[in-house]
Amino acid sequence: MKLLFVRFSSFGDVILTTGIMNYVSRMLPEAEIDVMTYKQYAPVFDNLPFVHNVIDYDRSKGLKEYLYVVQNETEDHDYIFDLHRKLRSVFLKFHSQAEYHHYKKDSKARRDFVRKGKDNPRLHMHVVQKYLEPVLSPLGLVMPDIDELRPVLIRHVERDEKRVFIHPFASKNTKTYPYARELAELLIKNGLTPVFAGMGKAPETDGIVDETGRKKLADMLDIIASCGSAVSSDSGPMHAAIGLGLPTVGIFGSTTKHFGFYPAFDNCIMLEDNRVNCRPCDVHGLDKCPENHFSCMKNLTPDKVLDNLKKLIGT
Fold first, then answer.
1. An example Gene Ontology cellular component term from the record (predicted)?
2. Same domain flag for 115 and 168
């Protein structure tokens, strides 16, 4: 039985699909699992024994390249599980002879929660559970405990338990941690080495390791894997740290667990302040706090981050 899982982007979303494939492989060891993604995210699947083939599509080459890939790489699958559900992935439904299933995004439920405070049972599901939903009935599986769906990344690098991967950056300012320098200084005082990586500026603090700046994805994953624990904003590198098995503190300011991307797995903590009643202000975060106080992040002081990290690493 040949299965094709499709998720083109983004970094964190692609990582979260790995736990689904790992679970399916354990339940159905005879299944041959392929994945289709954008070429830039193919390193996510390096060294994963349950992934048979990575069909990587270079989107910079346009639609013609995609049609070529579809025609030559997707003809002999029994099932296609579309975990993205965008126009390109839905196209597979009409081209392939495979049985096609897609996941439910719940975009409207998320928008209604932000704008109207309207709750919905779907908002209490983690995205990995939503990714697995369309797989269950066709393959005769059942929904497991969520840790069975933990993402999986494998890198062959040596780990230093004293190194702490720090990623305070995010695509939106209301998801960015504002106390990067103060946190770094506190970690150093406690005998730990902060390792900053990602697309942002590291604080000018003696004792840190600065790996920020544009890097190949494989190199970024190796940097994270070399650390013994992680502190991250709500972002793709947080999911990478979790997939690599690092004890991880996820810092959530303007976003909440209702969007499904929180660190729900063993040896992870979600740090947030539920007293701030204007959260969430947007599904994806904003460039500026609409209430001009940014309390959702400012209340998450470095000592609180360190206290939660110590709960995980026992230092």
1. cytosol
2. no
The answer to whether position 155 is within a domain reads no
Residue 149 lies in a domain: no
Residue 75 pLDDT exceeds 90: no
Three-class secondary structure assignment of 270-311: EECCCCCCCCCCCCCCCCCCCCCCCHHHHCCCHHHHHHHHHH
| Phi then psi dihedrals of residue 280, to 5 deg | -85, 145
Do residues 129 and 274 make contact, with C-beta atoms less than 8 angstroms apart? Answer: no
pTM (predicted TM-score): 0.96
Structure tokens at 184: 């770094």
pLDDT higher than threshold 80 for residue 230: yes
What pLDDT, on the 0 to 100 scale, is given for residue 64?
A: 87
Residue 315 has pLDDT above 80, yes or no: no
Give per-residue pLDDT as tens, 37-65: 999 999 999 999 999 999 999 999 988 88
Sheet holding 53-57, edge to edge: 53-57, 32-38, 2-6, 79-82, 99-102
Looking at residue 88, its pLDDT comes to 87
Residue where the block lists tokens 């030559």: 72
